[in-house]
Amino acid sequence: MNDPNDDKIRKLLKQSIHPASQEFERDLWPQMLRRLEERSTGVPWFDWALLALAAVCLFLVPDTIPLLLYHL
Amino acid sequence: MNTHPYLRAYMAGIVFPTLVLLVVLTAFCIARFVYQVPVPIERVIIFPMALVPSLFGVWNMFYLWLRPHPHLPIGFHGALLPFVMVPVGIALAGRLGLVTVGSSGLMCLDQHIVPYQYVALAFTIGVIIYYLAWKYLVGFFNQVLGIA
């Protein structure tokens, strides 16, 4: 048998909490694609600095080039 | 259905060194046959041709295996590879008589001494190049083959 208090609580809960919508209000896929694109295109400055450092070292000390070629 | 992820990881791993091999082989051939640099090309090319691409592939398979566990980002994972590869390369070069360990540096082909500070610098540059190559190139090939 249902307690009258339970019915009252159920009624109050239904009043205060709106039912969840069955469908998303908008398409989330374009937003997801945009975020993926943002993530894949950005090269951080630190990586550019590392590349520049490696290039300068190779230019200043060309004796290191054969050693590098051997290990690539 | 078995999608063979480790086979794809191996394939994604060997693309970059296989492409670089063409450049390396061309450089060795030009040095040997155009500029007459006395390089025993058949012995020098063994390591870059036979072992480096395979090590890249196996290292990428290792990365895939580590994925479910706590693991480093792919760039740092690749930057660790020279710590395995350089000792193997120097040991093989020593066995083939290409390099002798001297007191002041590495004696290459009994003709040219590379001081140890240059060796250390080359190693550092190698770690940087490996970090960037793994982060951007191997990472890209992993994405293309659907294992990123």
What does this structure look like?
The complex is a heterodimer of chains A (72) and B (148). Chain A is mainly alpha-helical. Chain A has a domain at 43-72. Chain A is built from four helices and no strands. With 148 residues, chain B is mainly α. Chain B has one domain. Chain B has six helices and three strands. Chain B has helices at residues 5-34, 41-44, 46-66, 74-79, 81-95, 116-144; strands spanning 99-101, 105-108, 112-115. In chain B, a hairpin with a 3-residue loop joins strand 1 (99-101) and strand 2 (105-108). Chain B is elongated. The relative contact order of chain B is 0.16. The chains are: A mainly alpha (72), B mainly alpha (148). The interface between A and B is medium-sized, with 18 and 29 residues.
Question: What's the arrangement of secondary structure elements?
Answer:
The complex is a heterodimer of chains A (72) and B (148).
Chain A: H1 4-16, H2 29-41, H3 45-60, H4 64-70
Chain B: H1 5-34, H2 41-44, H3 46-66, H4 74-79, H5 81-95, E1 99-101, E2 105-108, E3 112-115, H6 116-144
Antiparallel strand pairs in B: 1-2, 2-3
Strand content of chain A: under 5%
How many strand elements of chain A? 0
What's the count of strands of chain B? Answer: 3
Low-confidence stretches of chain B: none
> Poorly predicted ranges of chain A (pLDDT <50, ≥5 residues)?
none
Q: What portion of residues of chain A is helical?
A: 55-70%
Main sheet overview of chain B: 3 strands, antiparallel
Distance between the termini of chain A: 78 Å
Helix count of chain B equals 6
Distance between the termini of chain B: 19 Å
* Largest interface, C-beta closer than 8 angstroms, per-chain residues: A-B, 18 and 29 residues
> How is the biggest beta sheet of chain A arranged?
none
